[in-house]
Design a protein that fits this description.
Helices cover 9% and strands 32% of the residues. The protein contains 5 helices and 22 strands. The strands form 9 sheets. A 4-stranded mixed sheet has the order 6-13-12-9, with no helix packed on it. A 3-stranded antiparallel sheet has the order 7-11-10, with no helix packed on it. A hairpin with a 7-residue loop joins strand 19 and strand 20.
Length: 388
Amino acid sequence: MASVNASGRVTANRNGSTEVFAVVDNDTASVGVSVAQRLAGFGFEPAPVILNSLGETAQLDATPRDAGDAEIPSGVVPDPAWSAANPGIASVTSEGLVTAVGNGETYIRAAGLDIVDSVRTEVRQVAARVSIFGPRAIELDAIGDSVRLSAAGFDALDPDDADCSLALDRLDRDGDGLLDCEERFIGTSPELFDTDADGLPDPVEFRSGTNPVWADANVDMDFDGSLNGNEVAWHTNPTLNDAAQFSKYAYRYKFRKLAGIFDSWVCYEFGVDNITLVGTSSLYPGAPEGYNDIMVYAGQVPQDDPDDYGTFRVACARTRYIPRYPEPDVKYPPSGLVKFKQRDFKRPVATRCASDEECPHHICDPRDHVCLVPRALSSQLRRRVRDS
């Protein structure tokens, strides 16, 4: 609980009560010592909070500390209550999840007992890609000739800052959740779910910070000992050495092949654990809150052609979590278990067709009669259909 040196200086070591004794010759005296840490502030992680895209999020942790900056054990003081100094720049949930709303600088506050502490939070959009509008090659015939170019930066989480004014630009031909105009800015193909054929869908790569136009799944971008592809699957950060946080945040997969052959198909089952839900705000006034959409992407390639662009299916589970401290939280499903069946996995694009001519730049799947992949891959698709 406490220690004392030869000069009589008592130092607190941990919470609790004890006695300090003084012995002189044959006489002994004692004094009771009580150690009870008092909250003086919080230690924040990360600090400061820097967000580079509108809609980007960061999970804040606030560790209670006493006046000597020593950490106060869990349970000694209640969890902090979170608030944002300027919700127009950054908002925060009751669980400490910060979301970028607008450019600027503000503070996120944590309050506990009678103590309020804060951490600086800055939102500054950083262009993920810059496009130059004008001729692809500039030829000037005389000194003094000029041509005007324009450039635009693109924030992937803000769909309104791309050049998407035409209805045609707002199509999503490959069904990956990125509009065609956004894919033009990013450099990905509007007709491929996985442009670089590395097994990671374009929208997942872009939001994770890996390169969707270069196969970098087997690269360790942050030198933390884990490949980009693994970090994307684990839901850890491939751009930050966060190996120390893997056990806390990483998804955990179970995957096994089912015995037997089912109508010429080889089947597998899988499970994913450690998915964290967060309390979310309403999309608009009066709308329900707490919704979390969990997207599951499944891709396959021919065994004899692992570099193929692949065929993807997507399943979505809408879960719900509403933190209501000190009241019991609301969670759906209550068991925390979501089960998918094979029919829950849908093709990202399912435009009905009767012939190839009805699918501009696509082919018509002769089995399901839907537009699928670019014509250049038609022979591969037909082989997959025939072999299956």
